[in-house]
Amino acid sequence: MSTDRGRIRITGFDADRVESREPLSDWTETRDTGTEGRWVRAWREFRRNRSAMLGLYIVIVMSLLALFARPITIAGVTVQPFSLAPYDPGAILYAQGLDVSAYEAPSLAHPFGTDGSARDVFSRVLYGGRFSLSIGFIVVLVTAAIGLVYGAIAGYYGGWVDETLMRILDLIFAFPGLLLALIIVAVLGKGYWELVLAFTAIGWAGYARLIRGEILKVKENEYVLAAKALGARDRRIIFRHVVPNAIAPLVVQASLSIGTVVIGVAALGFLGLGLPPSSAEWGTMLDQTRQTIVQGPGGSIPWWVTVFPGGAIFLFVMSMNLIGDGINDALDAQEGEDVARGGEV
Amino acid sequence: MSLRRFIAVRVAATVPILFGVSVLTFALVHLTPGDPIDQMVALNPQISAAEEAAIRARYGLDGPVWQQYLTWMGNVLQGDLGTVISVDQPVLPYIMARLPETIALGLFGWAIALLIAIPAGIYAAVNKDTLGDDLSRVFALSGISLPNFWLGLMLILVFALWLDLWPVLAPDKPLLSADMLWYLVLPGVTIGTASSATLMRVMRSSMAEELNKEYVTAARAKGLPERTVVLKHVLRNSLISVTTIAAFLTASIFAGAVVVEQVFAWPGLGRAFVGAIVGREVDLIMAITLFTGVTIILANLLADIMYAVLDPRIRYD
């Protein structure tokens, strides 16, 4: 066969055969989804993972419950009028003329019972999600962003820049996580943004180290050299060409560490160093119940004040971990068969 | 590079890190308004300004921060870690009295973690995708998702209060008595569960990876019993990746002690640290932070050495 193209005779190529070519591989039209991005593909993979989807649903439901627990008012304007929680989380119910005493067992009126100050535990658990969940998400976003920039700079420039930045990281890693958070909270005092800052200060280092390692691998690629040869600036090369190719493990790490942050926040609350003692944060609620459990309020044991707030933490963290594992598998599957087989067999 | 030289280099590299940790901690603690002297003055309003200054001078809490740091550093280099002001006791004996408690708790937690994780990991890898494997995965996932303080409270609730198998509070007995070791089971399980779950996951995946390698086929082909293949050949190689994680977990067990000791009212270093934070005991905070820093660094070093012992292919250069 041959085709005439101008004066050049091309042999060994048959244009018709391209159209109706026989499948040499298992390549099919359905397998090739054209220009579909890898995140779209990852999402498709993720959706097939039932346990990860279960985790996602639980997280969404818990977030909505926390959001709609009590009305939200910003500068006098009610932006969220719904109130799923039957009582004000801080209200001491007998002080409001209700026939409720401290440590009432769960009943229809109070599904999670009441605590030592006759507050409705169900309302408190719903509302408490606001603290843990929002701190978890904020901290992970901020730390991932800081770690990304820090690690990218260290990895891309290398040399003394890398050396200096990495020694600073060693410093952070020499503290066991919670110890540094405790010291920082001691310095700043209790409060919401103080907790955010404390967990940001200890959290970014892990991302920085991870991204640096990825950048070191990615920057060896020819397309980086090509971008340099075309005169692209460092900033453009880093954030346009290198980072997007190194970001998958960061996403996995971030999804897995939301749970860690939530547990950390609750742990500080439990130690009495988180939020003010009366706030409905899950860990802070457990701090107050420890005394009653160990000493006993006399008579029956108020198990509900321990089981429900802690159960909420556990449920949320577990769901986040399910999601994290799902993302990991979804992104891993794209790395090609070999890599997938090398990891979890 | 020989192993000895490698260790020497690594130990030398820890000095600037520890120096940095001490500067950072010192600066942070001194940024805080209020120290134990302020609390003392608040409780005894008759202390005059002159007396307050004298007390400050006695504990080295006067002068600019950098000067205080240099004084502290000079004392530390001479083996004087400072004073726990609220009880007017030197830091070193104060720590030494609490250290065995924390070590006992940590070792117990470690033992429980290893006892569960290694066999369960081996079992899950060998019987992949069976019911047992699935159960082990559920256990691992729950284990890393459980907040240790809540687990501790639940264990107290169920086993100490409802089933009455354990005393709620630690018996007032010496650390190595039978009563005490029995009491340690609950805190030990509490502190070991998360580590055990992580270890098990690592054990399972590294074991599964090793089982697919050619030397396993070779060992099977030459007729070795499956038991020998798994426990002698595969296990040894899988343990390499477990050791790194194990070193990392030592740090997390130590951090866990801060919370778990609070749950069980255990008189260890972790509880002392929380007390030091609340009471602004600078010298005590510094000493415990540096102590844990050294522990973490040593654990990492140990992991690298174990690497070399377990896998002679690893070279240091």
Automatic annotation (TrEMBL), chain A:
Belongs to the binding-protein-dependent transport system permease family. GO terms for biological process: transmembrane transport. It comes from Haloarcula vallismortis ATCC 29715. This is Oligopeptide transport system permease OppC. Residues 129-324 form the ABC transmembrane type-1 domain. Gene3D superfamilies: MetI-like. It is a multi-pass membrane protein. SUPFAM superfamilies: MetI-like. It is found in: Cell membrane. Keywords: Cell membrane, Membrane, Transmembrane, Transmembrane helix, Transport. CDD domains: TM_PBP2. Pfam families: BPD_transp_1, OppC_N. The keyword GTP-binding does not apply. The chain crosses the membrane at residues 54-79, 131-156, 168-189, 195-211, 242-275, 301-323. One of its GO terms (cellular component) is plasma membrane.
UniProtKB/TrEMBL annotation, chain B:
GO terms for cellular component: plasma membrane. Residues 99-303 form the ABC transmembrane type-1 domain. CDD domains: TM_PBP2 (cd06261). It is found in: Cell membrane. Keywords: Cell membrane, Membrane, Transmembrane, Transmembrane helix, Transport. Pfam families: BPD_transp_1, BPD_transp_1_N. InterPro entries: BPD_transp_1_N, MetI-like, MetI-like_sf. The keyword Transmembrane helix applies. This is Oligopeptide ABC transporter permease.
